[in-house]
Amino acid sequence: MADRYLAIFFVSLSCLYRSFDASAGDVDPLYRACISQCEKTGCVGETCFTQCKYSVDGSFSDSQKEPLYRQLTQTDCSNDCKYHCMLQREKERAALGFGPVKYHGKWPFKRVFGLQEPIAVAFSAFNLAMHIQGWLSFFKLRSKTINKRISYDYAGLWHIWAFLSVNSWFWSVVFHSRDVELTEKLDYSSAVALLGFSLIISILRSFSIRDEATRVLMSAPLLAFTTTHILYLNNYQMDYGNVLISQF
User: Fold this and answer.
1) pLDDT tens for residues 57-114?
2) 221 pLDDT band (50/70/90 cuts)?
3) Which residues form the signal peptide (predicted)?
């Protein structure tokens, strides 16, 4: 009897994983058919892409390699086909009175001046600017206190936190500008690193832990957990929604 319940549990868990692994948009047969046709012809409706001449079904034509800038930004035939097929399907769904659905775990944003999420880019850039300004202000404050021979035990920790914050918001700007696998991993990894260190510094500061050995003892488990979580995010294919759940 126990084996039977265990089997039911694993089957249910497998179904739950499958539901998380795909979104309603990217399992749509019409969306998939559009992508398949686009990758063969290089066109979605009347819109055609010059970059599709570089790759056809994963192979390069005329013995040409795909340009380096397209490899770095992943503005290749496959990605542009997915984007324009997504827009086409959303127009068709809207005409039928249906609301938008997610594609590959994300809502169907329309690019503006090449930016995938311009509003998110603007807010991330604003946060980046404020953190840079705050870090510079802390440098100025430290220079004044040093002249007065006043020490601050947590200065080094705050500098690390400031660096991680600037790094996190920088990659947030890049990720929302161009969502590809590399920028996604850098954005999520930077965010997790910042969250992990924020927890560490909040504990050390709240309990006024100044002894170096005690700091190491308190920080080591959290650093190990944060590092493990970053490795997990970077080595498993996860849906965007799952990543948010795992972080928060």
Assistant:
1) 444 444 345 555 455 555 677 788 988 999 999 999 999 999 999 988 788 888 888 7
2) very high
3) 1-24
The single-letter DSSP state of residue 103 is B
Q: Are 116 and 178 in contact (CB under 8 A)?
A: yes
List CB contacts of 176: < 8 A, sequence separation 6 or more.
115, 116, 117, 120, 121, 124
Distance CA 14, CA 31 (A): 25
**Residue 188: which residues within 8 A CB-CB, separation 6 or more?**
233, 243, 247
Q: How far is 81 from 26, CA to CA, in rounded Å?
A: 12
CB contact at 8 A, 108 and 25: yes
- Three-state DSSP class for residue 151: coil
How does pLDDT run across 19-62, given as a tens digit for each residue? 444 578 888 999 999 999 998 888 998 888 776 764 444 444 44
Rounded to an integer, what distance in angstroms lies between the CA atom of residue 248 and that of residue 241? 11
3-class state of residue 152 by DSSP? coil
Residue 202: exposure state from Cβ atoms within 10 A (0-12, 13-18, ≥19)? exposed
Distance (Å, rounded) from C-alpha 195 to C-alpha 147? 33
Cα separation, 170 vs 246, whole angstroms: 22
Q: Which amino acid is at 30?
A: L
Packing angle of the helix pair 212-235, 181-206 (nearest 10 deg): 160
Which residue in the block uniquely carries the two structure tokens 């819109």?
A: 47
Dihedral over alpha carbons 191, 194, 195, 201 (to 10 degrees): 180
Q: Is the pLDDT of residue 214 over 50?
A: yes
- Give the closest residue to 175 by CA, choosing from 243, 84, 232: 243
